[in-house]
Design goal:
Elements: H1 2-11, H2 16-31, H3 36-49, E1 57-61, H4 67-76, E2 81-86, H5 89-98, E3 104-108, E4 121-127, H6 136-146, E5 147-158, H7 167-177, H8 186-193, E6 197-204, E7 207-213
Parallel strand pairs: 1-2, 1-4, 2-3, 4-5
Antiparallel strand pairs: 5-7, 6-7
Helix pairs in contact: 3-4
The protein binds S-adenosylmethionine (SAM).
């Protein structure tokens, strides 16, 4: 029931128009432990983490209204392309109107069954979505599949509290909304096991930012 509630909210036509300017900054700010500086620099930091340069082909999984996709399009222009993929019609419609860019394309697709061939992208990103996807590791595996050897991956998701006493409360509160909390090692461990290198992890509040390089 929980994940259905969160997923339904993302498809609600009333959320898409206020997502970028109100919902994302407010919830993101709280989620990141009220770190305004990090929130302000999030897009630039992500472009850097993905090591985007002109000519790159980059995928933004669960792009919402395209706030990161457009930043990626600017970084890969004039010859590259940023593809934003999402399952919400209203979010994609908003992306196409407010975050249009000549080097950005927005497509409908399921993160757990991505409509792209293997090794297709130089870089793959997924922010603020793995915690609401019912099978997040299927989505994660798909991100690894479509990323080319030597490419960069970056993700932002939740991280459960390091304090054992807080965890049940946290899971209960967030469980109502359908948001899942991940162990701090859940993604870094999988990347390590898959042979990824240059793995970095930054924690801000209950958010974890992970980036890594695919094996060559
Ligand atoms: C909280 S928004 C994140 C948007 C953007 N990435 C950001 O960082 O602000 C979560 C997005 O994930 C999308 N989403 C959820 N499940 C998905 C799935 N299985 N495949 C593709 N997109 C999905 C939702 O439609 C929504 O637009």
């Amino acid at each position: 029931m929980g994940d259905r509630w969160a997923q339904r909210l993302m498809r609600n036509p009333f959320l898409a128009p206020v997502y970028e300017k109100a919902y994302r900054p407010l919830l993101g700010w709280a989620f990141m432990g009220f770190d305004l500086d990090h929130l302000r620099n999030e897009r630039a930091l992500t472009v850097r983490a993905l090591r985007l340069t002109p000519g790159h082909l980059v995928l933004d999984v669960a792009c919402g209204p395209g706030l990161f996709t457009r930043a990626f399009a600017r970084a890969v222009a004039p010859a590259g392309l940023a593809v934003g993929m999402d399952m919400s019609g209203p979010m994609l419609e908003r992306a196409r109107t407010t975050n249009a860019h000549e080097r950005a394309r927005y497509v409908f697709g399921d993160a757990t069954d991505q409509p792209f061939p293997d090794d297709a992208f130089d870089a793959v990103n997924c922010y603020a979505a793995l915690y609401l996807i019912p099978d997040p590791f299927a989505a994660f595996d798909e991100m690894l599949r479509v990323l080319r050897p030597g490419g960069r991956i970056s993700l932002m998701t939740s991280r459960e509290s390091p304090y054992r006493l807080v965890r049940p409360v946290q899971s209960r509160v967030l469980g109502v909304t359908g948001l899942r909390m991940f162990d701090a090692d859940e993604f870094t461990g999988r990347l390590r096991a898959a042979g990824f290198t240059e793995i970095t992890q930054e924690i801000h509040g209950v958010a974890q930012y992970v980036a890594a390089t695919a094996p060559a």
